[in-house]
Amino acid sequence: MTTTIDHIESIIIDVPTVRGHVLSMTTMMTQSVVLVRVRFSDGSAGWGEGASIGGLSYGPESVESIKLAIDSYIAPVLMGRDADRIAAASGLMARAVKGNHAARAAVETALWDGLARRLGVPVAQLFGGRIHDRLPVAWTLASGNSETDIAEAERMLSERRHRDFKLKIGKRKVKEDLAHVAAIARAVGDRGTIRVDVNQAWSLTEARYGVRGLQEIGCVLIEQPVPRERLDGLRALTQGYEIAIMADEVLQGPADAMRVAAERAADVFAVKVCQSGGLMPAAEVIAIARAAGIGLYGGTMLESGLGTAAAVQLFATVPELAWGTELFGPLLLTEEILAEPLRYGDFSVAVPDGPGIGTVPDPDKVKFYRRDRPGSLMAVGTA
Ligand SMILES: O=C(O)C[C@H]1C=CC(=O)O1
Ligand SMILES: [Mn+2]
Protein backbone atom coordinates (compact mmCIF):
# COMPACT_ATOMS: atom_id res chain seq x y z
CA MET A 1 0.00 0.00 0.00
CA THR A 2 1.65 3.28 -1.11
CA THR A 3 1.90 6.06 1.45
CA THR A 4 1.15 9.39 -0.18
CA ILE A 5 1.83 13.06 0.57
CA ASP A 6 -1.53 14.35 1.71
CA HIS A 7 -1.03 17.80 3.27
CA ILE A 8 1.76 20.39 3.37
CA GLU A 9 1.51 23.27 5.85
CA SER A 10 4.03 26.12 6.01
CA ILE A 11 4.15 28.29 9.15
CA ILE A 12 6.19 31.50 9.54
CA ILE A 13 7.36 32.02 13.11
CA ASP A 14 9.13 35.12 14.44
CA VAL A 15 11.26 34.66 17.57
CA PRO A 16 13.30 37.42 19.29
CA THR A 17 17.09 36.98 19.37
CA VAL A 18 18.93 37.05 22.70
CA ARG A 19 20.68 40.26 21.58
CA GLY A 20 21.02 42.36 18.43
CA HIS A 21 22.91 40.33 15.85
CA VAL A 22 24.95 42.71 13.69
CA LEU A 23 26.06 41.52 10.25
CA SER A 24 27.62 43.64 7.49
CA MET A 25 24.32 43.89 5.60
CA THR A 26 21.69 43.77 8.37
CA THR A 27 21.06 43.87 12.13
CA MET A 28 18.69 41.22 13.48
CA MET A 29 16.51 41.63 16.58
CA THR A 30 14.34 38.64 15.67
CA GLN A 31 14.85 35.56 13.55
CA SER A 32 12.03 34.46 11.26
CA VAL A 33 11.86 30.96 9.83
CA VAL A 34 9.32 28.79 8.01
CA LEU A 35 8.37 25.51 9.67
CA VAL A 36 6.89 22.94 7.31
CA ARG A 37 4.74 20.01 8.39
CA VAL A 38 3.95 17.31 5.85
CA ARG A 39 1.18 14.84 6.70
CA PHE A 40 1.05 11.48 4.97
CA SER A 41 -1.80 9.09 4.11
CA ASP A 42 -0.77 6.56 6.81
CA GLY A 43 -1.08 9.18 9.56
CA SER A 44 2.67 9.80 9.84
CA ALA A 45 4.11 13.33 9.64
CA GLY A 46 7.44 14.96 8.91
CA TRP A 47 8.85 18.41 9.76
CA GLY A 48 11.30 20.63 7.90
CA GLU A 49 12.48 24.25 8.02
CA GLY A 50 13.40 26.97 5.58
CA ALA A 51 15.34 29.98 6.83
CA SER A 52 17.15 33.05 5.66
CA ILE A 53 18.66 36.08 7.35
CA GLY A 54 17.65 39.73 7.40
CA GLY A 55 14.76 39.44 4.97
CA LEU A 56 16.28 39.50 1.48
CA SER A 57 19.52 41.18 2.59
CA TYR A 58 21.56 37.97 2.99
CA GLY A 59 20.46 35.95 0.01
CA PRO A 60 17.79 35.40 -2.65
CA GLU A 61 15.00 34.17 -0.32
CA SER A 62 12.96 35.54 2.60
CA VAL A 63 10.48 33.72 4.83
CA GLU A 64 7.68 35.32 2.82
CA SER A 65 9.13 34.03 -0.48
CA ILE A 66 9.77 30.60 1.09
CA LYS A 67 6.15 30.35 2.26
CA LEU A 68 4.81 31.53 -1.09
CA ALA A 69 6.98 29.09 -3.08
CA ILE A 70 5.84 26.19 -0.86
CA ASP A 71 2.13 27.05 -0.78
CA SER A 72 1.70 28.14 -4.39
CA TYR A 73 4.21 26.08 -6.37
CA ILE A 74 5.68 23.15 -4.41
CA ALA A 75 2.64 21.77 -2.55
CA PRO A 76 0.47 21.50 -5.70
CA VAL A 77 3.02 19.32 -7.53
CA LEU A 78 3.62 17.00 -4.55
CA MET A 79 0.02 16.32 -3.43
CA GLY A 80 -0.85 12.63 -3.72
CA ARG A 81 2.71 11.64 -4.67
CA ASP A 82 4.50 8.60 -3.20
CA ALA A 83 5.91 9.75 0.16
CA ASP A 84 8.79 7.24 0.14
CA ARG A 85 10.15 8.27 -3.26
CA ILE A 86 12.03 11.38 -2.18
CA ALA A 87 14.35 11.47 -5.20
CA ALA A 88 11.27 11.53 -7.47
CA ALA A 89 9.62 14.23 -5.36
CA SER A 90 12.82 16.31 -5.47
CA GLY A 91 12.83 15.99 -9.25
CA LEU A 92 9.25 17.25 -9.42
CA MET A 93 10.16 20.21 -7.19
CA ALA A 94 13.23 21.04 -9.30
CA ARG A 95 11.12 21.04 -12.46
CA ALA A 96 8.35 23.19 -10.98
CA VAL A 97 10.52 25.58 -8.95
CA LYS A 98 13.80 27.10 -10.09
CA GLY A 99 16.09 28.39 -7.36
CA ASN A 100 14.17 28.88 -4.08
CA HIS A 101 16.50 26.38 -2.43
CA ALA A 102 15.41 27.08 1.15
CA ALA A 103 11.76 26.44 0.23
CA ARG A 104 12.70 23.17 -1.49
CA ALA A 105 14.99 22.21 1.41
CA ALA A 106 12.19 22.71 3.96
CA VAL A 107 9.85 20.33 2.13
CA GLU A 108 12.58 17.80 1.20
CA THR A 109 13.73 17.67 4.84
CA ALA A 110 10.15 16.99 5.99
CA LEU A 111 9.97 14.12 3.49
CA TRP A 112 13.19 12.62 4.94
CA ASP A 113 11.85 13.11 8.50
CA GLY A 114 8.60 11.33 7.56
CA LEU A 115 10.32 8.45 5.78
CA ALA A 116 12.81 7.90 8.61
CA ARG A 117 9.99 7.94 11.17
CA ARG A 118 7.98 5.37 9.18
CA LEU A 119 11.12 3.19 9.10
CA GLY A 120 11.82 3.84 12.80
CA VAL A 121 15.38 5.10 12.18
CA PRO A 122 17.21 8.45 12.51
CA VAL A 123 17.55 10.44 9.25
CA ALA A 124 21.34 9.91 9.60
CA GLN A 125 20.72 6.20 8.95
CA LEU A 126 19.37 7.07 5.48
CA PHE A 127 22.66 8.86 4.72
CA GLY A 128 24.90 5.96 5.77
CA GLY A 129 24.61 6.15 9.54
CA ARG A 130 26.24 8.44 12.09
CA ILE A 131 29.99 8.50 12.50
CA HIS A 132 29.94 11.19 15.20
CA ASP A 133 27.83 11.25 18.39
CA ARG A 134 28.65 14.95 18.95
CA LEU A 135 29.55 17.81 16.59
CA PRO A 136 31.71 20.81 17.59
CA VAL A 137 29.74 24.09 17.52
CA ALA A 138 31.27 27.55 16.97
CA TRP A 139 29.55 30.73 18.20
CA THR A 140 29.16 33.98 16.31
CA LEU A 141 30.19 37.14 18.17
CA ALA A 142 28.13 39.91 16.57
CA SER A 143 26.94 42.37 19.21
CA GLY A 144 28.53 45.18 17.23
CA ASN A 145 30.73 46.14 20.17
CA SER A 146 34.20 44.74 20.92
CA GLU A 147 33.92 44.86 24.72
CA THR A 148 30.51 43.19 24.65
CA ASP A 149 31.86 40.50 22.33
CA ILE A 150 34.85 39.88 24.61
CA ALA A 151 32.59 39.49 27.65
CA GLU A 152 30.37 37.12 25.66
CA ALA A 153 33.38 35.05 24.57
CA GLU A 154 34.52 34.80 28.20
CA ARG A 155 31.09 33.52 29.19
CA MET A 156 31.00 30.96 26.38
CA LEU A 157 34.47 29.71 27.39
CA SER A 158 33.68 29.53 31.12
CA GLU A 159 30.41 27.70 30.42
CA ARG A 160 32.36 25.33 28.11
CA ARG A 161 29.70 26.03 25.47
CA HIS A 162 31.94 27.44 22.67
CA ARG A 163 35.64 27.95 22.05
CA ASP A 164 35.61 28.58 18.28
CA PHE A 165 34.44 32.13 17.61
CA LYS A 166 33.23 33.57 14.32
CA LEU A 167 33.27 37.36 14.23
CA LYS A 168 30.94 39.26 11.91
CA ILE A 169 32.87 42.05 10.15
CA GLY A 170 32.55 44.08 6.96
CA LYS A 171 30.28 46.82 8.23
CA ARG A 172 33.11 49.12 9.39
CA LYS A 173 36.29 50.20 7.64
CA VAL A 174 38.83 47.39 7.21
CA LYS A 175 41.20 49.04 9.68
CA GLU A 176 38.47 49.27 12.35
CA ASP A 177 37.49 45.66 11.78
CA LEU A 178 41.10 44.53 12.13
CA ALA A 179 41.35 46.35 15.46
CA HIS A 180 38.09 44.72 16.58
CA VAL A 181 39.28 41.22 15.65
CA ALA A 182 42.72 41.82 17.22
CA ALA A 183 41.13 42.85 20.53
CA ILE A 184 39.04 39.68 20.67
CA ALA A 185 41.93 37.47 19.53
CA ARG A 186 44.07 38.93 22.35
CA ALA A 187 41.34 38.27 24.91
CA VAL A 188 40.65 34.71 23.78
CA GLY A 189 44.34 33.83 23.31
CA ASP A 190 45.02 30.12 22.87
CA ARG A 191 41.78 29.15 24.66
CA GLY A 192 39.99 29.10 21.34
CA THR A 193 40.12 29.97 17.63
CA ILE A 194 39.06 33.14 15.81
CA ARG A 195 37.37 33.13 12.39
CA VAL A 196 35.57 35.93 10.57
CA ASP A 197 32.62 36.23 8.19
CA VAL A 198 32.58 39.31 5.94
CA ASN A 199 29.27 38.40 4.24
CA GLN A 200 30.50 39.58 0.82
CA ALA A 201 31.16 43.15 2.00
CA TRP A 202 34.73 43.72 0.76
CA SER A 203 36.03 44.73 -2.66
CA LEU A 204 39.04 42.69 -3.79
CA THR A 205 41.35 45.57 -2.83
CA GLU A 206 39.87 45.85 0.67
CA ALA A 207 40.02 42.05 0.93
CA ARG A 208 43.74 41.95 0.15
CA TYR A 209 44.43 44.34 3.06
CA GLY A 210 41.88 42.59 5.26
CA VAL A 211 43.16 39.07 4.62
CA ARG A 212 46.78 40.12 5.17
CA GLY A 213 45.87 41.84 8.43
CA LEU A 214 43.69 38.97 9.68
CA GLN A 215 46.43 36.47 8.92
CA GLU A 216 48.87 38.51 11.02
CA ILE A 217 46.35 38.67 13.89
CA GLY A 218 46.12 34.86 13.96
CA CYS A 219 42.63 34.49 12.49
CA VAL A 220 42.36 30.96 11.01
CA LEU A 221 39.49 31.22 8.51
CA ILE A 222 37.87 33.99 6.45
CA GLU A 223 34.33 33.45 5.18
CA GLN A 224 33.02 34.93 1.91
CA PRO A 225 35.20 38.07 1.93
CA VAL A 226 34.03 39.24 -1.54
CA PRO A 227 30.67 39.23 -3.37
CA ARG A 228 29.48 35.82 -4.58
CA GLU A 229 29.75 37.07 -8.21
CA ARG A 230 33.50 37.68 -7.76
CA LEU A 231 34.72 34.08 -8.05
CA ASP A 232 37.94 35.48 -9.59
CA GLY A 233 38.46 37.49 -6.41
CA LEU A 234 37.75 34.55 -4.12
CA ARG A 235 40.24 32.50 -6.13
CA ALA A 236 42.90 35.23 -5.97
CA LEU A 237 42.58 35.37 -2.18
CA THR A 238 42.57 31.56 -1.85
CA GLN A 239 45.66 31.22 -4.03
CA GLY A 240 47.43 34.29 -2.65
CA TYR A 241 47.44 33.73 1.12
CA GLU A 242 48.13 30.92 3.60
CA ILE A 243 44.98 31.56 5.67
CA ALA A 244 41.94 29.42 4.75
CA ILE A 245 39.28 31.14 2.62
CA MET A 246 35.74 29.75 2.96
CA ALA A 247 32.95 29.90 0.38
CA ASP A 248 29.46 30.58 1.72
CA GLU A 249 26.98 32.73 -0.25
CA VAL A 250 28.54 31.63 -3.54
CA LEU A 251 27.46 28.05 -2.77
CA GLN A 252 23.85 27.84 -3.88
CA GLY A 253 23.84 24.09 -4.51
CA PRO A 254 25.96 21.35 -6.10
CA ALA A 255 26.49 23.08 -9.46
CA ASP A 256 28.05 26.10 -7.71
CA ALA A 257 30.12 23.73 -5.55
CA MET A 258 31.43 22.12 -8.73
CA ARG A 259 32.29 25.53 -10.21
CA VAL A 260 34.10 26.74 -7.06
CA ALA A 261 35.98 23.43 -6.77
CA ALA A 262 36.96 23.42 -10.46
CA GLU A 263 38.28 26.98 -10.12
CA ARG A 264 40.13 26.09 -6.89
CA ALA A 265 38.48 29.28 -5.59
CA ALA A 266 38.09 28.23 -1.92
CA ASP A 267 39.88 26.18 0.72
CA VAL A 268 36.69 25.39 2.67
CA PHE A 269 32.96 25.00 1.91
CA ALA A 270 30.34 26.24 4.39
CA VAL A 271 27.71 23.56 3.72
CA LYS A 272 24.17 24.82 4.38
CA VAL A 273 21.08 22.64 3.95
CA CYS A 274 18.88 25.62 3.00
CA GLN A 275 21.37 27.08 0.53
CA SER A 276 22.06 23.66 -1.02
CA GLY A 277 18.36 22.92 -1.56
CA GLY A 278 17.94 20.09 0.93
CA LEU A 279 19.71 17.24 2.70
CA MET A 280 20.47 15.28 -0.47
CA PRO A 281 21.85 18.33 -2.40
CA ALA A 282 23.89 19.24 0.71
CA ALA A 283 25.28 15.68 0.66
CA GLU A 284 26.21 16.26 -3.00
CA VAL A 285 28.02 19.51 -2.09
CA ILE A 286 29.89 17.53 0.58
CA ALA A 287 30.84 14.83 -1.94
CA ILE A 288 32.24 17.45 -4.34
CA ALA A 289 34.31 19.05 -1.57
CA ARG A 290 35.68 15.68 -0.44
CA ALA A 291 36.59 14.68 -3.99
CA ALA A 292 38.31 18.05 -4.53
CA GLY A 293 40.19 18.01 -1.20
CA ILE A 294 38.26 21.08 -0.02
CA GLY A 295 37.68 21.38 3.74
CA LEU A 296 34.18 21.11 5.25
CA TYR A 297 32.28 23.27 7.76
CA GLY A 298 28.72 22.68 8.85
CA GLY A 299 27.05 26.03 8.20
CA THR A 300 23.79 27.49 9.50
CA MET A 301 21.12 29.82 8.20
CA LEU A 302 20.26 30.51 11.84
CA GLU A 303 17.58 27.88 11.74
CA SER A 304 15.61 27.11 14.89
CA GLY A 305 16.24 23.79 16.65
CA LEU A 306 14.16 22.04 14.00
CA GLY A 307 16.27 22.87 10.94
CA THR A 308 19.38 22.58 13.10
CA ALA A 309 18.40 19.02 14.11
CA ALA A 310 18.05 18.11 10.42
CA ALA A 311 21.51 19.49 9.65
CA VAL A 312 22.97 17.62 12.65
CA GLN A 313 21.60 14.36 11.22
CA LEU A 314 23.43 14.90 7.92
CA PHE A 315 26.70 16.29 9.33
CA ALA A 316 26.90 13.34 11.77
CA THR A 317 27.54 11.10 8.75
CA VAL A 318 30.45 13.15 7.32
CA PRO A 319 33.85 11.51 8.00
CA GLU A 320 35.74 14.78 8.52
CA LEU A 321 34.28 18.20 9.27
CA ALA A 322 37.77 19.72 9.51
CA TRP A 323 36.39 23.14 10.49
CA GLY A 324 33.57 21.93 12.76
CA THR A 325 30.09 23.47 12.60
CA GLU A 326 28.22 26.62 13.62
CA LEU A 327 24.94 24.87 14.42
CA PHE A 328 24.06 27.29 17.22
CA GLY A 329 20.80 28.67 15.77
CA PRO A 330 18.46 27.77 18.68
CA LEU A 331 20.94 29.33 21.15
CA LEU A 332 20.51 32.72 19.44
CA LEU A 333 16.75 32.69 20.14
CA THR A 334 15.09 33.77 23.37
CA GLU A 335 12.76 30.78 23.16
CA GLU A 336 13.32 27.07 22.53
CA ILE A 337 10.63 25.92 20.08
CA LEU A 338 11.39 22.19 20.26
CA ALA A 339 9.54 19.73 22.50
CA GLU A 340 12.90 17.99 23.06
CA PRO A 341 15.69 20.59 22.71
CA LEU A 342 19.04 19.70 21.19
CA ARG A 343 21.62 19.04 23.91
CA TYR A 344 24.55 21.52 23.82
CA GLY A 345 27.59 21.30 26.07
CA ASP A 346 31.28 20.53 26.09
CA PHE A 347 31.75 22.87 23.10
CA SER A 348 29.47 20.65 20.98
CA VAL A 349 25.95 19.44 20.26
CA ALA A 350 24.79 15.83 20.73
CA VAL A 351 23.34 14.01 17.74
CA PRO A 352 19.77 13.06 18.77
CA ASP A 353 19.02 9.31 19.00
CA GLY A 354 15.32 9.22 18.17
CA PRO A 355 13.70 8.44 14.81
CA GLY A 356 13.51 11.02 12.04
CA ILE A 357 15.38 14.27 12.69
CA GLY A 358 15.18 13.29 16.36
CA THR A 359 12.78 15.89 17.66
CA VAL A 360 9.51 17.74 17.01
CA PRO A 361 8.35 21.32 17.59
CA ASP A 362 6.45 22.18 20.79
CA PRO A 363 2.91 22.90 19.47
CA ASP A 364 2.30 25.61 22.09
CA LYS A 365 5.49 27.45 21.11
CA VAL A 366 4.59 27.25 17.42
CA LYS A 367 1.12 28.57 18.22
CA PHE A 368 2.55 31.45 20.24
CA TYR A 369 5.22 32.52 17.74
CA ARG A 370 3.44 31.90 14.45
CA ARG A 371 3.07 35.11 12.45
CA ASP A 372 -0.56 34.40 11.46
CA ARG A 373 -1.81 33.93 15.03
CA PRO A 374 -4.76 36.18 15.84
CA GLY A 375 -3.55 39.59 17.02
CA SER A 376 0.06 39.04 15.98
CA LEU A 377 1.75 42.40 15.36
CA MET A 378 3.80 40.89 12.56
CA ALA A 379 0.68 39.66 10.77
CA VAL A 380 -0.23 43.15 9.58
CA GLY A 381 -0.05 43.20 5.80
CA THR A 382 0.86 39.56 5.48
CA ALA A 383 -2.72 38.24 5.61
O1 LIG B 1 27.16 32.44 7.64
C1 LIG B 1 26.33 33.36 7.68
O2 LIG B 1 26.56 34.46 7.23
C2 LIG B 1 24.96 33.10 8.25
C3 LIG B 1 24.93 32.92 9.69
C4 LIG B 1 25.91 32.01 10.30
C5 LIG B 1 26.19 32.51 11.52
C6 LIG B 1 25.66 33.81 11.59
O3 LIG B 1 25.68 34.56 12.56
O4 LIG B 1 25.08 34.14 10.41
MN1 LIG C 1 28.52 33.24 6.17
From TrEMBL:
Q: Which branch of life, at top level? A: Bacteria
Q: What is this protein called?
A: Muconate cycloisomerase
Q: Which organism is it from?
A: Pseudaminobacter salicylatoxidans
- InterPro entries named among the record's database cross-references: Chloromuconate_cycloisomerase, Enolase-like_C_sf, Enolase-like_N, Enolase_C-like, Mandel_Rmase/mucon_lact_enz_CS, Mandelate_racemase_C, Mandelate_racemase_N_dom
Extract the PANTHER family matched here: O-SUCCINYLBENZOATE SYNTHASE, O-SUCCINYLBENZOATE SYNTHASE-RELATED
The chain positions of domain Mandelate racemase/muconate lactonizing enzyme C-terminal read: 147-244
Could you say which protein family the record assigns here? Belongs to the mandelate racemase/muconate lactonizing enzyme family.
- Pfam families in the record, alphabetically? MR_MLE_C, MR_MLE_N
**Pathway(s) the chain acts in:** Aromatic compound metabolism
* Molecular function as annotated in GO: chloromuconate cycloisomerase activity; magnesium ion binding; manganese ion binding; muconate cycloisomerase activity; racemase and epimerase activity
Q: Which Gene3D superfamilies does this UniProt record tie to the protein?
A: Enolase-like C-terminal domain (3.20.20.120), Enolase-like, N-terminal domain (3.30.390.10)
Which residues are listed as membrane-spanning?
none
